[in-house]
User: Which sequence fits this backbone?
């Protein structure tokens, strides 16, 4: 027996199917037993791995390949492989990248079960939020161009369309780059993340699914390529932000809107980064007064941008992970204001996003920049916004406690606007809560007044002051003062 024959014999003793992937992760060689009896795996040479393993199975292998280095073994990886109409087969995939044949990778696939019918109840497509989360995860691992396709199917929500809907959802799931990142955004609108290398016509696949379900409709499909020149992290964040904006607005022309929104997001992100670098933004100072004496208690530092859409800009900065640099730039400008001649009695409240408190950088910088003038700390308040939810209260609480111990007051901004408001109050070492403007404007409503009465009493028990924002009329100011609200 020749040496080559002996190694082939050893390989087949351990595996049922041998596959070699080239540097582009396409099948360069295949031999052995395919998932479905009678199939010839050699016919898949030149195709991507999902031709043999299906989308989900191939994706599991692709992800592992991202970290594979010459001389390393891969797996075993458990996968479910399609093997005929409505059937699956369990398999284990192992691999090895020999140093002398890289970047090619050798795979050995072992069939661990006979073919069995797929469950009758196929899983639901992802929700919009789950699609965004899955897209972010997939793009972090993807090493090839991708696109987002939107599918509109007018009439799919009507009576007698369940079979068609299931067929369409199965097609979209299988068309996704990883076999699962497909979503139903509304009853008639879908989205799917696809690999650019997938040259199948999505509109033909969806049309065939509708026909199989006896639904005589013509699908509309728009597909938007993701810019491969943009590094994965900012593209992921821009993609998520653009998608969420389109989904929230519920616009009819989703595809065009998405393309425009993505381009706008990337452009705005670049402009925002330049603005922060050059400190090319303005700070304004909103007086916060004692509601009984009307004396100015402190000033809230507000940022203003050329776009005049402050809420959108801040949200974008949080989503694209640009907010930390901005929050520190605000600190720098605010401290300059405190240190101006004649500003000795001025007290300032500066906003910080929850995203900036996920590590020590913000707190370290603020303490370092006030180290030479420690009295400035007594004139500062940090307001934690709820726009970006906190995930680790204990860690954030410890960081905020360092500020409080240094003499800096702490405030929860927009209290009552988010689901975590009372968790913030319970777990963070705060001195002040600022009521969300919606509560302030609704103070004349009896239910709102009752809620505010109990909230103010709770804060008084905890020695926490209450600030009301967006007070615009005298009756509202009087009503809030009557409830015991301290500042506004």
Assistant:
């Amino acid at each position: 027996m020749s040496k080559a024959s002996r190694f082939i014999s050893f390989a087949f003793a351990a595996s049922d199917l041998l596959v070699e992937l080239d540097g582009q992760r396409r099948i360069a060689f295949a031999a052995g037993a395919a998932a479905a009896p009678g199939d010839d795996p050699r016919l898949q040479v030149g195709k991507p791995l999902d031709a043999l393993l299906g989308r989900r199975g191939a994706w599991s292998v692709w992800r592992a390949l991202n970290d594979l280095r010459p001389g390393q073994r891969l797996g075993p990886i458990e996968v479910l492989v399609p093997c005929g109409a409505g059937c699956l087969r369990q398999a284990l995939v192992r691999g090895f990248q020999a140093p002398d044949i890289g970047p090619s990778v050798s795979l050995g696939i072992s069939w661990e079960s006979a073919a069995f019918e797929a469950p009758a109840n196929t899983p639901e497509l992802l929700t919009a939020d789950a699609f965004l989360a899955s897209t972010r995860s997939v793009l972090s691992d993807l090493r090839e161009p991708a696109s987002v396709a939107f599918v509109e199917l007018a009439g799919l929500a009507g009576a007698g369309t369940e079979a068609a809907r299931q067929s369409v959802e199965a097609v979209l799931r299988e068309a996704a780059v990883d076999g699962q990142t497909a979503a139903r955004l509304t009853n008639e609108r879908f989205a799917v993340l696809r690999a650019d290398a997938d040259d199948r016509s999505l509109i033909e696949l969806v049309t065939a699914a509708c026909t199989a379900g006896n639904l005589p409709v013509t699908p509309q499909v728009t597909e938007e390529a993701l810019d491969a020149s943009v590094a994965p992290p900012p593209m992921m964040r821009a993609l998520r932000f653009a998608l969420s904006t389109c989904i929230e607005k519920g616009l009819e022309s989703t595809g065009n809107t998405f393309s425009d929104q993505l381009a706008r997001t990337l452009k705005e992100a670049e402009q925002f980064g330049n603005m922060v670098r050059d400190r090319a933004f303005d700070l304004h100072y909103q007086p916060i007064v004692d509601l009984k004496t009307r004396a100015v208690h402190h000033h809230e530092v507000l940022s203003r941008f050329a776009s005049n859409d402050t809420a959108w800009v801040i949200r974008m900065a949080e989503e694209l992970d640009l907010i930390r640099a901005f929050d520190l730039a605000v600190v720098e400008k605010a401290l300059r204001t405190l240190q101006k001649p004649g500003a000795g009695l001025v007290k300032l409240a500066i906003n910080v996003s929850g995203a900036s408190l996920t590590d020590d950088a913000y707190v370290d910088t603020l303490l370092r920049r006030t180290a030479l003038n420690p009295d400035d700390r007594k004139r500062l308040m940090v307001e934690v916004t709820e726009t970006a939810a906190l995930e680790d209260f204990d860690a954030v609480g410890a960081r905020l406690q360092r500020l409080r111990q240094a003499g800096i007051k702490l405030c929860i901004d927009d209290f009552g606007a988010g689901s975590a408001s009372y968790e913030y109050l319970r777990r963070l070492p705060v001195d002040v809560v600022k009521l969300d403007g919606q509560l302030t404007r609704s103070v004349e409503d009896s239910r709102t007044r009752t809620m505010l009465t109990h909230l103010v009493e709770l804060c008084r028990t905890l020695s926490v002051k209450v600030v009301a924002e967006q007070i615009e009329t005298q009756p509202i100011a009087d009503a809030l003062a009557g409830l015991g609200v301290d500042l506004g």
